[in-house]
Amino acid sequence: MLDHVRQAFDRSGLWDELATDWVVLDAELMPWSSKAQQLLEDQYAAVGAAARVSLASSVTALESATARGVAVDELLARCRGRAESVERYAAAYRAYCWPVHSLTDLKLAPFHLLASEGRVYSDKTHVWHMETLARLCAAGSDLLYATAHRRVVLDDEESCASVVEWWQALTAKGGEGLVAKPLDFVATDERGLAQPAIKCRGREYLRLIYGPEYVESLGLLRGRNVKGKQALALREFALGIEGLERLVDGQPLRRVHECVFGVLALESEPVDPRL
User: Fold this and answer.
1) Rounded Cα–Cα distance for residues 141 and 212 (Å)
2) Where are the alpha helices (DSSP H) in the chain?
3) Average pLDDT value for residue range 184-202
4) I need a surface site. Which of 1, 99, 170, 264 has the fewest CB within 10 A?
5) What sign does the CA torsion over 177, 223, 187, 165 have?
6) Where are the alpha helices (DSSP H) in 117-174?
7) 11-20 own/partner pairs: CB under 8 Å, 24+ apart
8) How many CA atoms lie less than 13 Å away from 202 in the CB half-sphere?
9) CA–CA gap between residue 160 and residue 154 (Å, rounded)
């Protein structure tokens, strides 16, 4: 894997352009099943299998009762609807699984060029990050996957509508969704540091987060408390930047690890489980 990435940097000329012989990348390794097989089997697949068996038996029994004239039409419709939700749930996690027999079956999608010799790239826009890494992927093997992105002007209705349409098409095909970010890597407003990113997941993917039938409880989900989660995200982001700065400055690893352990501690903080 590292050889493929190094060769892409060689061919793209980015080593020379960035005046470095090392980089820190933020990337996603796909598919899920290559690194979280046990989670898929124990959590998602197990829930899907158990629900399918249970609901199939219920539907069969209710159909038999209906045929005998028992008035269970409403309950039968309810069970059929639940069975359909479970099928959608199973389809959602299958989209993130494919057989992995060798390195060539993997995909690595980089989306941030975080640091290299002498600098942290938090002063660059997200467009710069995406375009630079698109060049890297274009120069690399099929293992590297260029992350798709769009730029949106928030006070332009046509621009917003275009991105919404793109998101809808993406999620309709089983995609997870998108991550919305300000143009600047580190953005501020009148209240201080702005949230660096927010995930906008699709309707079907959210079944994996909230359960197969979550759409029936949207009122409860909309009432969740996001302030605590946002505060944690901002602190984690600041610690991440600080850790990169310390690394680039050549400080001892124990000083870098202080930031790493700080992030891990924040990750263990209790938050609203609906987030």
Assistant:
1) 37
2) 2-12, 14-18, 37-39, 46-67, 73-94, 126-139, 157-172, 206-210, 218-222, 227-248, 253-267
3) 92
4) 99
5) positive
6) 126-139, 157-172
7) 11/139, 11/140, 12/135, 12/136, 12/138, 12/139, 12/140, 14/132, 14/135, 14/136, 18/116, 18/117, 19/116, 19/117, 19/118, 20/116, 20/117, 20/118
8) 22
9) 6
**Residues contacting 136, CB < 8 A, separation 6+:** 8, 9, 12, 14, 110, 144
Task: Write 116-121 long-range contacts (CB < 8 A, 24+).
Answer: 116/18, 116/19, 116/20, 116/22, 116/23, 116/24, 117/18, 117/19, 117/20, 117/21, 117/22, 117/248, 118/19, 118/20, 118/248, 119/248, 120/241, 120/244, 120/245, 120/248, 121/185
| Cβ atoms of 28 and 112 closer than 8 Å | no
pTM over 0.70: yes
Structure tokens at 204: 């079907």
16-72 residue pLDDT tens:
999 999 999 999 998 877 777 777 777 888 889 999 999 999 999 999 999 999 999
Instruction: Give me the amino acid identity at 198.
Output: I
